[in-house]
Here is the input.
Amino acid sequence: MSEIQKVFMPSDPLESGDRYGILSGFDPGTRTLEAGFRIAPPFKPLPVDTVLEKDIAVTLRDGVTIRVDVLRPAGAEKVPVIVAWSPYGKGQGTSASVMGVFGLVGLDNGIVSGLEKFEGPDPAYWCAQGYAICNPDVRGVADCEGDSVLWDRLEGRDCYDLIEWLGVQEWCTGKVAMSGTSYLAVSQWFTAAEQPPHLAAINPWEGVSDVYRDLVMRGGVPDHGFARQLRDHSFRGRGRKEDIIAEAERHPLVDDLWEQKIPLFDRITVPSYVVASYSNTLHTAGTFRAWRRMASAEKWLRIHNSQEWPDYYDEANREDLRRFFDHFLKGEDNGWENTPRVRYSVLDLQGGDRVNVPADQFPPADVTPTKYYLDGLSRTLGPVAPTVGATAGYAVGSNPDTVSFVTRFERETVLVGYPKAHLWVEVEAADDMDLFLLVQKLDAHGTPLQQFTVPNQGARVHDVTERGGSILRYKGADGRLRVSMRHLDEKLSTEDVPAHSFDRVEKLSPDEVVEVEIDLLPVGLVFYPGEQLRLVISSRSLLGPMMPGIREYTTPHGGEHVIHTGADRASYLQLPVKPA
Here is the structure.
């Protein structure tokens, strides 16, 4: 792909402020931080003597020089190293912004040393376990040369070069791994696909795996709120930075530019411990997609019931990860290979979640995709398609601007896997539709059930999740589709998970009724006798923005949305039903 297709804009230097941590300044050299060293009062002291090599120059294959920090246990013994690749400053662990994030979600800053990158492994723990941590500043960020890019195969090649440099350092055993959440997870898909010889294992902990489908144009809907935040606030340095918003506007369909932002999943063959959740409206779809498509023969999936940061820094989960790394980086015979290939959670949204349920695959083998047909007359979901055709709908921008369908379960019903909707739809007085879907759990009295994913459940979190902050409060499985982008990719679509090509626009004509398939985020939900499930269809996002402070999406399309049901236009919701 020609680099001309990329659009760049000026960057901002990394200066003192909320995103500037104690170790962010350019200060090359080697020093030893003695056991007991504490970088600042809120943070955990180091348990062992730790060597900090700061701002080491590493030259990439095209001549660009980046800067990395390495923290490793003192002494002559060689150790494996874990890379935390992201554009977030390598000294950001002590920044006001990161400390604020911990405060928002209810994590004590004392559980980490402050020496970690945001969303990355903590050197205080890993150095004490016989590992080194490499915290790089990437191309175009801080004091590094070049222009920065956002989630791109170029990053995979850059990280390949860093891994191969690390693998031959005198203090390294030659084994390199990667770990981290969010951006630090996304970079692992791209890097592992490049197959660096010294890469021994990866640990992607919730991450986008297709920039078009997960970030800028989910469902073909140009919702740029979080992409704008990433572009404007996460890349600071001397060079230029990629303007992902301008690219989305110039390239509204999938083309070579967007293909370069999809990892080559069939080339990911390294041992992998993947962590996912049902509730991360940014990362969930991408994490499960990568898990399904990656070629690793040795891959494990754990689906938790919270949010990525509390889950990543949880002591038991960290020990679990150490067993994985000890097995593949140190060759320890610790029984890791007997770990179930899948451990999933089942939410009940009333405090009785089940976690670490073992399975050989996801969805589990005994799950049956089951159709629940929409009835526009009774507004119910049922096991048999209505013989009488009917419609239900709403006017865009009206109140109400939703239409919903409900079913009540007579016996305990467990859903584990991928829901999807198959709808017959029509629009009056317009030529396109933005459809937003939500599958909710209701109690026996019809009250929607929700669940905070973070330890903090105070007034502030209530406020920020009332009309947004969807990664902090789980309200159900959502999906979306711009109907003119409904064309399915026959190679990528499966019976459970429809995948759209997003390479063409097919506007609707007056009186035209079309079939659409819409994927919803995977679920693990139990319904007890009397509890209900509600499918909601709307022209607006039913969850709001994924993070606080992000602009809410408003559809540019008006008109009347009509959902057809029954007879020869039998719309249905397909649910993954597991025997109770």
About this structure: DSSP finds twelve helices and 28 strands in the chain. The chain has two domains: 3-339, 368-578.
